[in-house]
Amino acid sequence: METIQSNEELFSSLGFSATPQEPVDQGLEMEDFMNLMVTELTHQDPFKPMENTELATQISQFAAVSGIDDLNKSFTGLSSSITSDQALQAANLLGRQVLVPSSAGWFGSGDTLKGSIELPSNASNVTLRITNSNGALVRELELGSHEGGALAFSWDGYDDQGDFAGSGLYQVTAQATVDGAEMAPAVHVAAEVESVSLGGSGGVRLNLVGLGQVSMNDVKEIY
């Protein structure tokens, strides 16, 4: 699964602003700069070569004063292309379930509520608790001891007395003992993608049944 940056994050990570700036005549052209860079690399001490970060810094500094306006125009086009790709990816998720961080999960009749408990390390006494909208305990699942990592779970909709709890939004929490101490590990739940929203600083967002909107960057797994 790919992580997709928003347009603003893309510009920021590359060190560029989305606002065009007036070009500055520095006298030194890109060809001259590259010739100087090649000369420097050719005559460098082989036992103390230039670090990748140092090389990248020199190139970015030159670009910042020589061609930032043209570069920003190029990245504006690239940004539009990335947004289109995000939209296509999101459209393919309609009707499918995605795993996202959440302490709540939607249970539909005839379905199962599934997800995972994120254990930071080996744990014992792992317990999953499902409560209804009134805060009443519906089901408690004793899952025993497990190694660190994602521990998958599923709930069939029946309470501890064997009665069907019905459709609705339920709170899902976990408890575990790690290194002798009680803790509440993070929980991820699966939810169906109902629709997709585009635009804005949040980029592409998924509308999940019962949970509302989440960013595509929050998706941990696709079912």
TrEMBL record:
Gene3D superfamilies assigned: 2.30.30.910, 2.60.40.4070
Domain annotation FlgD Tudor-like: ranges: 85-220
Record-annotated FlgD/Vpr Ig-like domain positions: 110-177
Cleaved signal peptide residues: none
Biological processes, Gene Ontology terms: bacterial-type flagellum organization
Record has Ribosomal protein as a keyword: no
Keywords: Bacterial flagellum biogenesis, Cell projection, Cilium, Flagellum
InterPro entries in the record: FlgD, FlgD/Vpr_Ig-like, FLgD_Tudor
The keyword Ribosomal protein belongs to this UniProt entry's keyword annotation: no
Function: Required for flagellar hook formation. May act as a scaffolding protein.
Similarity comment text for this entry: Belongs to the FlgD family.
Protein name as annotated: Basal-body rod modification protein FlgD
Organism whose genome encodes this protein: Candidatus Endoriftia persephonae
Lineage: Bacteria, Pseudomonadati, Pseudomonadota, Gammaproteobacteria, Chromatiales
